[in-house]
Amino acid sequence: MLVIPKLGAKLAGFYFKSESKMTKKDSIFKDLGSYFRSHPGTTLGWIWVSFVPLLGSLLLSTRYQELEQIAVAGVGEHLLLILILTLLVGLAFLPTTFTALASGFFWGWTVFPHLVIAYLLANVLGYSLGKWLNADFRTILYARHPNLQVEIEKRIEQPAGLVFFVRISPLIPFAISNFLFASLGIPLSKIIRYGLPGMLPRTILAFASGMAAQSFLEAQASLKDPQDWLVLGLLLVGSIWGIWHFWTKKKIKS
Predict the structure, then answer these.
(1) Distance between CA 61 and CA 77 in Å, rounded?
(2) How far apart are CA 72 and CA 79, in angstroms?
(3) Judging by beta carbons within 10 Å of its beta carbon (0-12, 13-18, 19+), is residue 185 exposed, middle or buried?
(4) pTM given for the model
(5) What is the mean pLDDT of the chain?
(6) Is the backbone of residue 196 left (phi > 0), alpha (psi -120 to 50) or beta?
(7) Helix (H, G, I), strand (E, B), or coil: what is residue 1?
(8) Once rounded to an integer, what is the mean pLDDT over residues 188-208?
(9) pLDDT digits over 23-48, tens only?
(10) What's the Cα-to-Cα distance from 213 to each of 26, 225, 227, 228, rounded to whole Å?
(11) How far apart (Å, rounded) are the C-alpha atoms in residues 30 and 105?
């Protein structure tokens, strides 16, 4: 006779715990929505880094003939190219992979160092913009969810794994990751130190594909080659495993 009341008490406890978890999750999403509604500039920034690179790629695909007229010869032209690439990538007008593809096709290996330098400077530019737009994000979020602060801060004390595996992921765009790292407060020096090695595999692949192509349309199509898809698939699997391992490892240590 005592079994039913005990079972009912357990079910009630499970229900209230589940209800509490759902309420907590809902409140986080509710707070995020409230934050973005009260920060229109931040909202526009996230929309920009999410969609403008794609639009830039589409535009370049139809106006690429104009790049054929650009020659990189003197020191001034080399410096100007670095500046242009920095602004295009850092301000999220173009995605990094497509930029590497076009650079390889139009200018070849002589500008590969320019691309690497531009990526480093674009890190600084994109991160600084993301930090400025998301200046009070963590302050507001942590004030309402102190437990979340503990979980996040433990994981970004040593962010090497997170930064590296986010950068090698084919699914996480460069501009979005800059905003993400800035929002989490990961130091810029560590993003550059661990992020550049993560960017190189996709960059080299796209750059080499651009160099090997006979036309720009062929260069774009080359990214759909089965071998390239295999490499991208391996990078994707590696990034997912790396991010998961980083998160769970930090959780176990806590």
Answers:
(1) 23
(2) 9
(3) middle
(4) 0.79
(5) 82
(6) alpha
(7) coil
(8) 92
(9) 444 566 776 777 778 888 999 999 99
(10) 50, 12, 15, 14
(11) 46
